């Protein structure tokens, strides 16, 4: 059965907590029976996580999505994956040279959520040509949610 725009809107409302209990139950029953609808649910989850990371959700929906979907293990995993992809897709700018120190732009090798926390672990590799002595490390992220993750009120 082909999905309608109404079905897609219902799924989005479902994921953002806008459905009544009765509407939610009816949709969940359809999700069990209709593969196309379930596939649309999975696509919509990914789209909402991307909108969340890009700061494109309205504040109320952003907050609800963080406290409900992103608080689940599946939501945290999708969020971490999206953040990691955003870090890997971001072009690395040419390094700046200053006479008193060296600056290296290093891309993240791995980004993952830390279980039972709001923290994200970023793994990176420093260059072998780094001079011996004290150094300062600055971390630049493409989105605020990349470092903060879901937050409570």
Q: In which range does the helix fraction lie?
A: 40-55%
Largest sheet: 2 strands, antiparallel
- Inertia-based shape: elongated
Q: How far apart are the termini? A: 41 Å
Count the strands?
A: 4
Name the strands of the widest sheet in spatial order.
Answer: 1-2
**Any idea what the radius of gyration is?**
20 Å
Give unreliable regions as ranges.
144-153
Mean pLDDT reading: 77
Percentage beta strand:
5-15%
Secondary-structure element pattern, one letter each: HHHHHEEEEH
Overall number of structural domains:
1
How many H/I helices? Answer: 6
Keywords:
two-stranded antiparallel sheet; elongated; 6 helices; mainly alpha; 153 residues
Structure description:
There is one protein chain. With 153 residues, this protein is mainly alpha-helical. It has one domain. The protein contains 6 helices and 4 strands, in the order αααααββββα. Strands 1-2 form a two-stranded antiparallel sheet. Strands 3-4 form a two-stranded antiparallel sheet.
